[in-house]
Design goal:
By secondary structure, the protein is α/β, with parallel strands linked by helices. The chain folds into two domains: 141 residues, Aspartate Aminotransferase, domain 1 (Alpha-Beta Complex), CATH 3.90.1150.10; 222 residues, 3-Layer(aba) Sandwich (Aspartate Aminotransferase, domain 2). Helices cover 36% and strands 18% of the residues. It contains 13 helices and 17 strands. Helix 3 packs antiparallel against helix 10, helix 4 packs parallel to helix 10 and helix 11 runs parallel beside helix 13. It starts with a helix and ends with a helix.
């Protein structure tokens, strides 16, 4: 079908929750995409940090083909080897507790909130300004953005929003607090790295009161910042964390991972998910986790991130570069609109990025990106006229 025909189908039959760019992608390999007209693109968004292993990684493709011909679903009323192995490897690679598998990041955060409330019934959840934790009701209630929350009020009660200030956060946590929920790097609102002081204040406040420190590692995990999990570069270890996006190697999956203290907090019947941990998705996730755990790959992420940041800083319209590893945001000249610039990068220079705000563009290429591809992307972005 032509692009015009697809747009007509969308206009008539698709709930209008997305503003799509006028491109139909039909094939991907590594860090490259091809549209229906045969044009080649450099993908520096990776499906919003989903394709950390790149498009159609041969090992993911082989695993999915083999598993889909054997068994796709039986429900969590029975055992499957991929789900049990994935849970074990997730726990062993991180906090050492237990794992609840689900289908998305928002679902993982819902499970995390329920975990904290099970540990301290009725307790409040403290979040910070500019956070984004998802669009389902609990996750949305933890996302203090007026434009996203206001149309759907009333929200789930019991959420407290504080500035990104260590003293303010510490003062908000008391014996009635169930959890502090934080992204080590705030992704959807513009790649803002939370300060060590803020994270340490959160850890100290939770230790003082018995509240649960939850890290949303949906975007920072799976090697994105140069370590398998973002918290590994910090002085703070959470009590539980959530993962999703890149965990499935391109297929939908989410996970709540606990530390030992909370491993048995949720009991049979407390939570569930029909499709969670199905053998097809779990098989792909096992491979993605193995690839993203490679020490050589992780070391390269930090080097390549520095190379990309340095290149972006040379662009005439860029005023700020921030982030960690291959999770970078740039602020552009306020006289230019970032959404327009991102759209022009796609249509004129065939580089896939996205705008997270009026002046901010996010870049999250696959972790397998090469030096040459980074230089090529920077050159293409530099060719955009102001």
């Amino acid at each position: 079908m032509s692009l015009a025909e697809l747009q007509a189908l969308e206009a008539e039959h698709v709930v209008p929750t997305y503003l799509r760019n006028p491109v139909e992608f039909v094939r991907g390999a590594g860090c490259r995409l091809w549209d229906s007209d045969g044009n080649e693109y450099l993908d520096f968004l990776a499906g919003i940090s989903v394709l950390n292993v790149g498009h159609c990684h041969p090992r993911i493709v082989e695993t999915v083909r083999e598993q889909v011909g054997r068994l796709t679903h039986v429900s969590n009323l029975y055992y499957t080897e991929p789900a049990m192995k994935l849970s074990a490897r997730l726990a062993e690679s991180s906090l050492g507790g237990k794992v609840f598998l689900c289908n998305s990041g928002a679902e993982a955060n819902e499970a995390a909130i329920k975990l904290a409330r099970r540990a301290r019934p009725g307790g409040r959840v403290v979040v910070v300004q500019d956070a984004f934790h998802g669009r389902t009701y609990g996750a949305l209630s933890a996302t203090p953005q007026e434009s996203k929350q206001a149309p759907f009020a009333p929200l789930v009660p019991g959420f407290t929003v504080v500035p990104k200030d260590p003293a303010a956060l510490a003062g908000a946590v008391d014996d009635d607090t169930a959890a502090v929920l934080l992204e080590p790097i705030q992704g959807e609102t513009g790649i803002h790295v939370l300060s060590d002081e803020l994270l340490e204040a959160a850890r100290e406040a939770c230790d003082r009161t018995g509240a649960v420190l939850l890290f949303d590692e949906i975007q920072t995990g799976m090697g994105r910042t140069g370590t398998l999990w973002g918290y590994e570069q910090l002085t703070v270890v959470p009590d539980a964390m959530t993962s999703a996006k890149a965990l499935g190697g391109g297929l939908p999956i989410g996970a709540l991972v606990t530390g030992p203290r909370l491993a048995d907090t949720l009991q049979p019947g407390d939570h569930g998910s029909t499709f969670a941990g199905g053998p097809l998705i779990a098989s792909a996730a096992l491979v993605a986790l193995e690839i993203c755990s490679d020490p050589a790959l992780l070391a390269r992420v930090q080097v390549l991130g520095e190379r990309l940041a340095a290149g972006l800083a040379t662009l005439p319209y860029v005023t700020t570069v921030r982030g960690r590893g291959l999770m970078l945001g740039i602020d552009v000249d306020p006289n230019l609109a970032a959404p327009d610039l991102a759209r022009r990068a796609l249509l004129e220079q065939r580089v896939v990025v996205n705008a997270t705000g009026p002046v901010t563009i996010r870049l999250e290429p696959p972790l397998i990106v090469t030096e040459e591809e980074i230089d090529e992307a920077v050159a293409r972005l530099g060719a955009l006229s102001p």
